[in-house]
Amino acid sequence: MKKKKRDIVSDNSMKGALEDLNILAPSTSPEKKFSIRDVLWNYPKTFLMLYKKLIPLSYIFLFAIVAGILVLIFNLPGFSNLGKEGVKKDTFVEGLVGTVDSLNPLFVTNNFSDRAIQSLVFQKFVNIDKEGNPVAGVATSWTTSENGLVVDFKIDDELKWSDGSDLTIDDVVFTFETAIALAKRSGFDSVGEAFQDIGVEKIDDETLRFELKERNPVFFKAISIYIVPKSRLEDVDIGRMAFDQFAKYPMGSGKFYVEKVDDFEVVLEDNEYDRYEPKIKRLVLKIYPTLEAEEMAFRVGNLDAVGGWDRKSLEYTEEYRNYSNYAMTIRDREKLIFFNIRRDSLKNENMRRALNYLLDKEKYLEELNIGGEIMYGPLPKTSWAYSDDFEKYQYNPQKAKELLKDLGYVMNNESGYYESENNEILNFTLSYLDTVTNNRMVELLTDYYKKEGIFLKGNKVGYNQITQEIIATRNFEMLLYEVETTIDPDQYNLWHSLKVNYPDLNLSGYDYERVDILLEEARQTTNKDTRKQKYVLFQRYLSSGSPVIFLYNPSFEYIVNSSVKGIDLESINNSYDRFHNIEEWYWE
Predict the structure, then answer these.
(1) Spatial distance between the Cα atoms of 282 and 271, rounded to a whole number of angstroms
(2) Whole-prediction pTM value?
(3) Count of CB atoms situated within 10 Å of the CB of 90
């Protein structure tokens, strides 16, 4: 077999190089013999001659060696901290994607960056643990009376604000009264909406009383809000409070205070007036407009940590061995596809059931590579009220085919779609917030449903449009949306017929009297056995009505430099509480 021309050239180059070094004798000098000693003795000349003669092969070889060395260096533990050795022991830098909107905790925010910062700057009146139980915060203890309708709280009288002044009962009363006042004024999405019908009264300098109109198992969750200083906000007009400078530079009693805020970073410094002596005294939260910008900052070593709810978008971090991955499933958040039952196209339960049967969730989430745990009903399997006795809508195209046939839709093998008697293709419009993750989700969903004979059209919208035009007016056919629930199984706000209008979250417009009664009765007692009986039936009825497609509980992944120790995600329910034990973090 003949050699290729390129191989011949390489052989000739090698031969010429060796001849020049007297390693291989030319044909005109047969008496010259090969000598290992000469090669070893003249190794600099040997290597140099070979390098020149074997260009460009020598260039490729040299580049490969350099690249290999760089990869090893980049993966060395602590490489990302080179150049900042003087500050790394007391400074932690994390990347965030998006914006910081408002740090005033009297207003509801869906911005996870805002929530993370608030958790560092303020203290909650009471905290909620992993199991959904209340634990001490600003309030250290409490007692109930009048059959659970009166609750008295004792507050910690040794707390201070970050300016050194005392946190008093008057600050607590002011916080709750202001939150309620904001909730009762139109146009303000205040945390007070959850307790605006509850009476608040100062008993003495250490005691605060709440009077409830009816027993409420989620009462403690409702009053788990951050306390703000009366001295800072009492002179601010309530109509202007959302726009006050306090939203940018707040004062709290938390473990850190805000030293700097701009479009590029938030700098937090240790609060010297709290009870903790943290090893990390400075937190820098770098803000990036896109995931790509954050990734670049991570790759060049500017960040000690990044986090997110989409595993695929964080795959690049797997290239770096000196980072640890902490992950947690957020069980009080649910990613759903809401059916708008108000629309003629989705009024029939069998249509909604068919769409459920046509989605292979296991395959879909595996291909999506987003993380999280699949949901089949309104409660996660870890809930004490969870029941396995309901229709879970496992992938079953045959059942869907039968249901659709009864509704007048038959598969047209030529078009590949289900069609009516008038040859109209079965189609739906899915609205969703324009994000990288949602775009990927909808693209895959449309592909899946296309293969099953359903034409699904995506309607991508911005944040203002989805909140003000779609959710506020319920102007959608199908809606991909993520809702926040509670660790407690109460889902009154999601499924009761009185909650079908904005700002409540019964987005589907689901209305079933039996479910209303069950949700009401489950709220009127704190007995777990009684409540569970109600929720078992609730799950069964809701699944049968099929107002949504349950997708998954999202998973938060936190990628942190392995030299940072003490991180604990196992004791919390939400990603924005990841700094809950920041006083225990340290650089190794």
Answers:
(1) 10
(2) 0.83
(3) 14
CB count, 10 Å around CB of 85? 9
pLDDT in tens, 34-48: 455 564 556 566 656
CA distance 123 to 574: 16
Dump the DSSP string for 38-87. Answer: HHHHTHHHHHHHHHHHTTTHHHHHHHHHHHHHHHHHHTSTTGGGTT-TTT
Report the b/e string of 242-265 with b at 16+ CB within 10 A: bebebbbebbbbbbbbbeebeeeb
Per-residue pLDDT band at 6 (split at 50, 70, 90): very low
Q: Taking residues 265-278, report their average pLDDT.
A: 97
- Answer positive or negative: Cα dihedral of 247, 251, 254, 259: positive
Residue 530: in which H helix or E strand, if any?
Answer: helix 528-545
Give the Å distances, CA to CA, from 328 to 402, 433, 552, 555, 579: 40, 24, 13, 6, 14
pLDDT tens digits, 216-262: 888 999 999 999 999 999 999 999 999 999 999 999 999 999 999 99
Encode pLDDT of 178-213 as tens digits.
999 999 986 678 999 999 999 999 999 999 999 999
Please give the structure tokens belonging to residue 376. 């089949």
| Mean pLDDT within 465-477 | 95
Q: What is the mean pLDDT of the chain?
A: 89
Q: What is the pLDDT of residue 187?
A: 67
What are the tokens at 201? 């009264």
Q: Is 446 buried (19+), middle (13-18) or exposed (0-12) by CB count in 10 A?
A: middle
Q: Using an 8 Å Cβ cutoff, are 384 and 489 in contact?
A: yes
**Cα Rg of the chain (Å, integer):** 32
Q: In this structure, are residues 573 and 554 in contact, taking their beta carbons and an 8 Å threshold?
A: no
Q: List beta partners, residue 548.
A: 338
Residue 562 CB-density burial (10 A; 0-12 exposed, 13-18 middle, 19+ buried): middle
Tokens 């709440």 found at? 210
Q: Using CA atoms, how far apart are residues 150 and 289, in angstroms rounded to an integer?
A: 47
Q: How would you list the strands of the sheet with 478-484, edge to edge?
A: 373-374, 548-553, 333-339, 478-484, 427-433, 455-461
DSSP 395-441: --HHHHHHHHHHTT-EEETTTTEEE-TT-PBPEEEEEEE--HHHHHH
Checking 378-384 for CB contacts under 8 A at 24+ apart, the result is 378/334, 378/491, 378/494, 378/495, 378/538, 378/539, 378/542, 378/550, 379/489, 379/491, 379/535, 379/539, 380/331, 380/553, 382/331, 383/331, 383/487, 383/489, 384/489, 384/528, 384/532
Q: How confident is the model over 547-562, as a mean pLDDT?
A: 98
> Would you tell me how many other CB atoms lie within 10 Å of the CB of residue 137?
22
Number of H helices, E strands in the chain: 17, 23
Write down the pLDDT at residue 189: 86
**Three-class secondary structure of residue 303 per DSSP:** coil
For residue 482, what is the DSSP state?
E
Query: Quick check: 271 and 162 in contact, CB under 8 A?
Result: yes
Mean of pLDDT values over 295-307: 98
| DSSP codes joined into one string, 445-468 | HHHHHHHTT-EEEEEEE-HHHIII
Share of the chain above pLDDT 90, in %: 80
